[in-house]
Specification:
mainly alpha, binds zinc ion, 0% strand, 95 residues
């Protein structure tokens, strides 16, 4: 029974399930922090989050409604930093 380290975390599925609530800012702060901690070290989840956000923004754009759900600045910074790190790893290591 050898599991390669590259295998996705078992947590991911749960994270995925919560991400949409996270984006709607419906999660309690503690849960947000747990998500962010996971996201900081899990590129697949980060990518999923970003694609999810895009589709949400598109939805709001279609409806033409004002007042999209704001992600708090701290969360944004954390995600942006994690996302950049992931991109750096991808771009740098591959050669
Ligand atoms: Zn994950």
């Amino acid at each position: 029974m050898s599991h390669p380290h590259s295998e996705p975390h078992g947590d991911c599925l749960e994270i995925f399930a919560r991400l949409s609530e996270y984006l709607d800012a419906e999660l309690p702060a503690v849960t947000c922090q747990e998500l962010e901690a996971h996201l900081a070290d899990c590129p697949p989840c980060i990518e999923f989050l970003y694609s999810l956000r895009k589709s949400i923004e598109l939805c709001h754009g279609c409806e033409g409604e004002e007042g999209p759900p704001p992600l708090n600045p701290e969360a944004r910074d954390t995600l942006a930093a994690a996302y950049r790190r992931m991109l750096a790893r991808r771009g740098g290591v591959d050669l």
